[in-house]
Amino acid sequence: MTAKLSKRQKAFADAYLINGGNATEAAKTAGYSPHNIGANAAKTLKNPKIQAYMQERLQPIERETNLEVDKAIAHLLAIGMGQEVEAHNSTYDNRAGEMLQDLTITYVPSPKQQVEALELYLKYKGVLRNASKELEDAQARKAAAEADIAEAKAKDIKQAAEQGGAIIVDDIPDGQATDDQN
Known about the structure:
Elements: H1 7-18, H2 23-30, H3 37-46, H4 48-80, E1 85-93, E2 98-107, H5 111-125, H6 131-162
Helix pairs in contact: 1-2, 1-4, 2-3, 4-5
């Protein structure tokens, strides 16, 4: 068990965890003085007792989350390996406040579902790279190269203007005719 916190410190830590990590808002919620609240909130957040308390509060949630992730991965692998799996389907009528249908079925995944599950698992593990990521990378390299070319052209034009000369810039892509050529 961590060191004992004051009521205000505990309120701050709890508010910080609830609001998604906004220390200033947590300090306001806990009743800290509005004078220099941002600085006081930052100082309070760095307090080792408060950090230990928040870590202690988060551990069960993190363990539960990891268990849920582990279950999802195990389910994904079961589908990928073509093992018999259970699926649950519930239909609830909110207006009437009653369950209309609560169904559990057992099935063997189709080959398409198996391939999709294995593909998803391999992407999760980082073994399979997304083709669109490679396309994005290529497009970024192309845009950078085009920017370099435009910069070089601008430099040439500026240099020619400074020297009193002229420069001919051909910005018409190959295969496209101008009005003068038609």
